[in-house]
Amino acid sequence: MSSSEFLAYVPIFTELSKDTLAKIEQIGSRKMYTKGDVILMEEEAGTALFVIVSGKVKVTRSSGDGREVILTILSESDFFGEMAILDGLTRSATVTAIEESELFLIQRNDFLKLLYEHPEVSVALLQELTTRLRNADLKIKALSVKDAEGKVATVILQLADDIGKIKHGKVEIENLPLQQDLANMAGTSRETISRTLHSFAKKGLVEMEGSKLRILDYEQFKEKFI
Q: Does residue 104 contact residue 66 with C-beta atoms inside 8 Å?
């Protein structure tokens, strides 16, 4: 698939014509990253917007005591790096490939020019940023007031929304992050993650199969914990 075909599925570019997408393809570039590669670092200067062609990345920040806190996991058609481009400040988080990933890069000046020439991209970007802000607010509230089960459920629901796929009426999360990564997302311990996932499975809320997790009734699960 060419970049212009792929870009049509990126939320901020869906309203653009094929000709405009072809122009974006010409000003951008593709780059491969292997698992564990750091794509950008917190506090470094922001020089480009990144769009995920394939693969998955994790977005993290360092806590006051040096622990890694996972903010989100992004996959195909997601984008990142827009904040530093818009405000000219340093990166607000570190992004690392958690599997082999191909990214499409648009340099800062080219992206800003695109926003000026195509207001529909600016509107779509604002809508996407607003959605992310609302989701962040909900997550902060959930992680600050809920018990261990509620915190773990919040992370599972976030992963379901971000990278889950509906199969036979169930939401399946393939390649579930390691339990320590889940603990970093939920602000809890690896032992709590393990105990809670086994509890969810025992109650018939989820199924575990290797690195896969299936939410048997997404709406019921969401209603129970949100």
A: no
Whether 8 contacts 51, CB under 8 Å:
no
> What is the reported pLDDT for 91?
85
Give the pair of three-digit tokens for residue 96. Answer: 């690392």
Question: Is residue 171 within 8 Å of residue 220, measured between CB atoms?
Answer: no
**Domains in the chain: boundaries:** 3-140, 146-225
Domains 3-140 and 146-225 share a fold: no
- The domain 146-225: what is its CATH number? 1.10.10.10
- Tally of CB atoms within 10 A around 111: 21
Write out the DSSP string of 142-175: HHHHS-HHHHHHHHHHHHHHHH-EEETTEEEESS
Q: 6 is written with which tokens?
A: 């792929």
Burial tier of 60 (Cβ tally within 10 Å: 0-12, 13-18, 19+): buried
Residue-wise pLDDT for 21-76, tens only, equals: 988 999 999 999 999 999 999 888 888 999 999 999 999 887 767 677 888 889 99
Could you give the CA distance from residue 177 to residue 188 in angstroms, rounded to a whole number?
Answer: 15
The three-state secondary structure class of 71 is: strand
For the domain covering 3-140, report its CATH number.
2.60.120.10
Query: From the first residue on, what is the mean pLDDT of each consecutive set of 10 residues in the chain (226 residues)?
Result: 78 89 91 95 88 93 76 90 86 92 94 92 91 80 78 90 82 88 87 94 92 91 83
Q: How far apart are CA 114 and CA 8, in angstroms?
A: 15
